[in-house]
């Protein structure tokens, strides 16, 4: 009974709200995850070739880095509005805006990662007869992975937060719930959606950290240099 | 594209610039709120970061605050402010939110800038008999200057961007032109407002870049 009263009393924290609107909350969270994931994946797919292009020399690096930096300067509300004539009120509008934002961080990190690959490693691979494609895929990419993943984590966390602004065109995931609740000053909904947003960002960050650890097992061995190191290497070799 | 032409017409129509909700007043609001917030954020973040950097302690905290900041949506923070008594205090909800988001980049960059100063240079200055304050003012601060200014630039851009989101919760600033356009299905006005907001952000970035070059302590020394 006390639970139902909190909806009437407009408390900040309300169990009854969570129970009665669980479907609405789940839908908004799913939309939020969906928009974020698609944006970051497209961002990565666009940023990677751009970084490879920027690596080819100063003539390419200047325009690529300059353009992505200028895009990052444009405020999100303006970005979504500027894209409006092109896409109309759609999820594609929000996704495009978020992709453009993620490019700055992703291109810089992929580039930094690729440039930090030791030249000896590349020379050795070339000497072993690796072609450019195999060199990139089997030597450079794994060694650039920590920097790439660091960029991916920053881009994902910012994208989760920025997605809320998409509620301007009705495609903001949890942001929609915040916007809906504002006119009626519905405290429980604003607080719940905000907290879910932050939790989503933290969860995505931890997930990507886990992925990074799985993809780069060698960094873990180096990190635990100490008496256990021999045992660890033995275990890895056995596995 | 018809929208671009219509937006140009909107921007060049005098009546759209006058009055309480006109572009001129919104622009003034935007600049005022952003300026006050940036000044407050500098007043809070820079002394703390520079002092901690000089001591070489407490950096993990600065960097972590900055990372957590990315995860918190501006829109959510402003919406939460609007549900508290703060909503009746004019520009303050926006200013407080802006300060909150401008402090982390300022803090991280200033702290990292001071601690990244070459230890050999610091030791040499000590060996020459410089006191703590002298070391700070003549060695650490000039060498950390580029990173401090980078932090200031990213904070300024963030502040201008955040000030436009204030419109989504019904507060002032240039964003109001965009949200008002949305409410009346006036795409030309939405586009015109977006051009103004984006333009202001680019002008802010450009001004600070120019200021950065003008004030750079290393440049002055080279000229002298």
Question: What would you note in describing this structure?
Answer:
The complex is a heterodimer of chains A (239) and B (224). By secondary structure, chain A is mainly α. Chain A has one domain (23-238): MetI-like fold, CATH 1.10.3720. Chain A is built from 12 helices and no strands. Chain A is elongated. Residues 227-239 of chain A have low confidence and may be disordered. With 224 residues, chain B is mostly helical. Chain B has one domain: MetI-like fold, CATH 1.10.3720. Chain B contains 10 helices and no strands. Chain B has helices spanning 2-12, 23-55, 59-71, 74-82, 92-115, 119-127, 132-165, 175-183, 187-215, 217-223. The longest helix of chain B is centred in the middle third of the chain and has 34 residues, at 132-165. The model of chain B has no long low-confidence stretch (mean pLDDT 87). The chains are: A mainly alpha (239), B mainly alpha (224). The interface between A and B is large, with 40 and 42 residues.
Strand content of chain B: under 5%
Whole-number total of structural domains of chain B:
1
Going by CATH, the architecture of chain A would be Orthogonal Bundle
Globally, the shape of chain A reads elongated
CATH domain class name of chain B: Mainly Alpha
Tell me the greatest interface.
Answer: A-B, 40 and 42 residues
Please name the fourth-level CATH homologous superfamily of chain B: MetI-like
Task: Decide which structural class fits the backbone of chain B.
Answer: mainly alpha
How many helical elements of chain A?
A: 12
- Give the radius of gyration of chain B: 21 Å
Work out the radius of gyration of chain A: 22 Å
């Amino acid at each position: 009974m006390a639970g139902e009263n909190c909806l009437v009393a407009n408390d900040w924290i309300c169990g009854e709200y969570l129970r009665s609107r669980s479907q609405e909350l789940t839908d908004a969270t799913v939309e939020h995850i969906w928009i974020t994931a698609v944006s970051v994946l497209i961002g990565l797919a666009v940023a990677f070739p751009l970084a490879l292009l920027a690596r080819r020399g100063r003539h390419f690096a200047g325009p690529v880095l300059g353009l992505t930096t200028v895009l990052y300067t444009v405020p999100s509300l303006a970005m979504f509005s500027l894209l409006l004539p092109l896409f109309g009120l759609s999820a594609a509008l929000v996704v495009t805006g978020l992709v453009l934002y993620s490019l700055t961080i992703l291109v810089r990190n992929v580039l930094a990662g690729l440039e930090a690959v030791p030249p000896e490693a590349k020379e050795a691979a070339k000497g072993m007869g690796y072609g450019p494609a195999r060199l990139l895929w089997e030597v450079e990419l794994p060694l650039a992975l920590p920097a790439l993943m660091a960029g991916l984590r920053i881009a994902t966390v910012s994208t989760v937060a920025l997605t809320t602004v998409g509620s301007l065109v009705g495609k903001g995931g949890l942001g929609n719930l915040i916007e809906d609740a504002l006119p009626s000053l519905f405290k429980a909904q604003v607080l719940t959606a905000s907290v879910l947003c932050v939790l989503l960002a933290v969860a995505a960050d931890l997930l990507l950290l886990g992925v990074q650890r799985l993809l780069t097992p060698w960094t873990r061995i180096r990190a635990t240099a100490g008496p256990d190191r021999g045992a660890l290497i033995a275990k890895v070799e056995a596995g | 594209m018809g929208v671009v032409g219509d937006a140009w017409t909107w921007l060049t129509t005098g009546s759209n610039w006058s009055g309480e909700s006109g572009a001129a007043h919104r622009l003034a609001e935007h600049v005022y709120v952003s300026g006050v917030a940036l000044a407050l954020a500098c007043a809070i973040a820079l002394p703390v970061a520079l002092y901690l950097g000089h001591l070489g302690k407490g950096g993990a905290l600065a960097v972590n605050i900055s990372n957590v900041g990315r995860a918190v949506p501006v829109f959510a923070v402003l919406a939460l402010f609007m549900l508290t008594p703060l909503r009746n205090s004019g520009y303050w909800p926006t200013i407080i939110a802006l300060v909150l988001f401008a402090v982390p980049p300022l803090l991280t960059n200033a702290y990292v800038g001071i601690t990244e100063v070459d230890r050999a240079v610091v030791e040499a200055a000590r060996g020459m008999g410089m006191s703590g304050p002298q070391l700070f003012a003549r060695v650490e601060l000039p060498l950390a200057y580029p990173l401090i200014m980078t932090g200031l630039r990213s904070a300024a851009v963030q502040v201008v961007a955040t000030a436009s989101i204030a419109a989504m919760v019904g507060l002032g600033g240039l964003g109001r032109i965009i949200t008002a356009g949305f409410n009346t299905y006036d795409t030309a006005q939405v586009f015109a407002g977006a051009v103004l907001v984006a333009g202001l952000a680019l002008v802010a970035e450009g001004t600070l870049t120019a200021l950065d070059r003008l004030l750079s302590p290393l440049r002055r020394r080279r000229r002298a």
